[in-house]
Amino acid sequence: NDNNTFAVNNSSGLVYTVNPTVDREKIAAYNLEIQASDMGTPKLFATTSIRIIIRDVNDNQPTFTGPRSVAVPE
């Protein structure tokens, strides 16, 4: 999570996007290591890894190669 794309809600544990510009063409998947700890003494903690796979969305504008003409009968 070097570019701060994701964050974790402290109460629910929900992982959500912070950076709305996630682009599958640039990065197709993210591997995150998440660590939770308590406030006790000594501190107890647990670590887990999750993989987030970005699904592709057609975000490219349509293009035309050149002008076209079409005849339609009345």
Distance from N terminus to C terminus (CA atoms, Å) equals 60 Å
The ordered H/E elements are: EEEE
The proportion of residues forming helix, as a percent range, comes to: under 10%
Order the strands across the largest sheet as they lie in space.
1-2
Global Rg: 23 Å
Uncertain runs with pLDDT below 50, 5 residues or more?
Answer: none
Total number of strands: 4
* Overall pLDDT: 88
Portion of residues in beta strands equals: 25-35%
Describe the largest sheet.
2 strands, antiparallel
**CA-based shape:** rod-shaped
Structural class: mainly beta
Write the layout of secondary structure elements.
Layout: E1 6-8, E2 15-17, E3 29-37, E4 45-53
Antiparallel strand pairs: 1-2, 3-4
Describe what you observe in this structure:
Residues 2-64 form the Cadherin domain. Keywords: Calcium, Cell adhesion, Membrane, Repeat, Transmembrane, Transmembrane helix. Its main location: membrane. This is Cadherin domain-containing protein. InterPro entries: Cadherin-domain_protein (IPR050971), Cadherin-like_dom (IPR002126), Cadherin-like_sf (IPR015919), Cadherin_CS (IPR020894). It is a single chain. Helices cover 0% and strands 32% of the residues. The protein has a domain at 6-53. The mean pLDDT is 88. It is rod-shaped. It has 74 residues and is mainly β. The strands form two sheets. Strands 1-2 form a two-stranded antiparallel ribbon. A two-stranded antiparallel ribbon has the order 3-4. It has strands at residues 6-8, 15-17, 29-37, 45-53.
